[in-house]
Each structure stands twice: as structure tokens, then as C-alpha cells.
Amino acid sequence: MKISKIHKDEVDWLISIYKTSDIEELKNESLEKLMNFGLNENQITERFNNLKSVEAESKAFEKAWEIQKKKNQFEKYTIVEKINIFFFGPYLLFKDFDSGLIDLKKDNYKIKFSQKLILLISGTIFWILFFIAFYQFSEYKRIQEIEKADITNWEENRIKDK
């Protein structure tokens, strides 16, 4: 796990979430992160009281978001995620018409964006070629069955009638 520099704005944002959020899961997660940063309940309350206004909270959020965007730039997909995108991404793309690429671009996931784009294109090409090959193979088998059919009785009956 990487040890990253603790930014004051990130801590302030987590404190404001912990003190103002109505969602219990979000409060617990922010408290856990604050405890990992080495803050106790008294320090959290004291710092919350020092936050000036909603403007200070939004400023802290914006700064924390910018820091997170810089971190997002170098994130990559795992092998399992790549396999899922390759095989199931084209299905989800054509089912919902949502590739998720816009969100990746907006949140500054540069490497993930290019990986997903390449995986979606190659996965779509793979499935198209797979269905074409399956169709060609089934046609080949059908023609083989037709050619193997014994039509001698039919030909004899047809010739006798004339």
C-alpha cells in the first residue's frame, strides 16, 4: 500500500462528511479514514468547529477532488477486469448504449480510458468474427449433410415416371 501525503483539504472534507452526512455507511467510512490519519473524536470535533462555512467545505472538496483526479490519471484495470470488459463489454455497450468512457474521461482516468476503449473495440471485433465463423461452420456442416444424402431412390422414381 502506498503511503501518500495527507492533505489538509482532504481531511477537512472527510470531517465535514462525517459530521454532516445522514448516510450511516458514509459516516462510518469517513470516520475510519480519519482514524487511519491519526485523528481521534475530540480532534475531529475541534477541526469541524474550525471550518468556517459551507464555502470552506466546498473549497476543501474541490481541492480534494483535484488531488483525486491527479491520482486517477495512473490507475489501471486488473487482469480480471480486462477479461470482463473484453468478453462482456460489447454486450453491455449495445444493451445499454453506455460504455462508461465519458465518465472515465471526465474523472481523468487516462490509462483506464485508453485500456477500455481498446478492449471494447477488440472485444466487439472478436464477437463479430466469432459469430461469422460460427455461421460459416454451420453452413459448411449443412452443405456436407446435403451432399451426403442418398438420393438414388428419388432419381430412379423420377426417371421411371417419364
3D structure, described in words:
With 162 residues, this protein is mainly α. The chain contains eight helices and no strands. It folds into two domains: 65 residues, no CATH class; 63 residues. It is 79% helix and 0% strand. It is rod-shaped, with a radius of gyration of 30 Å.
Relevant terms:
162 residues; mainly alpha; 79% helix
Topology:
Elements: H1 8-20, H2 24-36, H3 41-50, H4 54-72, H5 79-96, H6 101-106, H7 110-148, H8 152-161
Helix pairs in contact: 1-2, 1-3, 1-4, 5-7
Mean model confidence by pLDDT: 80
Low-confidence region ranges:
none
How large is the count of helical segments? Answer: 8
Percent strand equals under 5%
Care to count the β-strands?
A: 0
- Main beta-sheet strand count, sense and barrel state: none
Domain unit count = 2
Helix percent reads over 70%
Helix-and-strand structural type: mainly alpha
Global shape: rod-shaped
Alpha-carbon distance between the termini? 89 Å
Rg = 30 Å
Q: Helices and strands, in N-to-C order?
A: HHHHHHHH
Quick structural summary:
The chain has helices at 8-20, 24-36, 41-50, 54-72, 79-96, 101-106, 110-148, 152-161. The protein is mainly alpha-helical and 162 residues long.
